Amino acid sequence: MTTLAAPTPLLPGDAAADYAECFAALSDPTRVRLLHAVATSHGGLTVGELTDLLGISQSTASHHVRKLAAARFVHVSKVGTSTRVTVNEACCTGLPHMADVVMGVGVTGPCCPDDVPADVTVRALADADWPAVRRIYRQGIDTGIATFETSVPPSTQLAARWLPAHRWVAELDGEVVGWTAVAPVSARECYRGVGETSVYVAAEHRGRGVGKALLRRQVTAADADGLWTLQTAVFTENRASLSLHHQAGYRTVGIRERIAQRDGVWHDTVLLERRAS
């Protein structure tokens, strides 16, 4: 007998209206180009700079900026006599999740990255690896968008925090170039299969697939060991980490606005979750 899957609940009306507003804001090609220009700039652009960059009139640029601001894709502020446009990181990072929800694939994703580099070896963390792990942790802290920590915890504290069977390092040419670990979210028995994950890659080796190799081992080991949920929080500015986690089957749960301060500055984080495949 064939068992039919339960129908997916219909998208609530208020969520549909909110998503439609965002999608409508991107219905104009010039507006999409303008948003891309702002999102890929460092610190935003003035309306005048956008006018020159896109080859459009100032009134046209201002019109598109107003539309994007109304849909919360950008922030607009006055700097002297100029109007400066900066991207709203929280809204932009939420857009892929909205598309997933509308298309009915918001709760599924890939098992793990499948294009990991052949020259990266991932193995269990050994006692001799702690100096490299702490050095790489320090490099992550120094980016300002990897963690709210401002100092590296002692190795004894990290060892006590992380699950012994879920601490991994990546090696490249015999050098430790990254690490990942899973920590229990609670001591309560009902949460025994829920872990909080971290992943860090050495500054000089980012962009080479080390993170993909680490995430692949992280999630496959978690699945094999009966961890049913992995979760992590990523700064909205940290797009590389968001992309990496989505490739490993994590989905966006939501945005936690002004969740904590780093060096006196409030930050938003994206709450990501992965269910066992």
UniProtKB/TrEMBL annotation:
Residues of the HTH arsR-type domain: 11-113
Domain of life: Bacteria
Stored InterPro entries: Acyl_CoA_acyltransferase, ArsR-like_HTH, GNAT_dom, HTH_ArsR_DNA-bd_dom, WH-like_DNA-bd_sf, WH_DNA-bd_sf
Span of the signal peptide: none
Keywords: Acyltransferase, Transferase
PROSITE patterns, per database record: GNAT, HTH_ARSR_2
Gene3D superfamilies according to UniProt: 3.40.630.30, Winged helix-like DNA-binding domain superfamily/Winged helix DNA-binding domain (1.10.10.10)
N-acetyltransferase domain boundaries: 120-277
Name by which UniProt lists this protein: GNAT family N-acetyltransferase
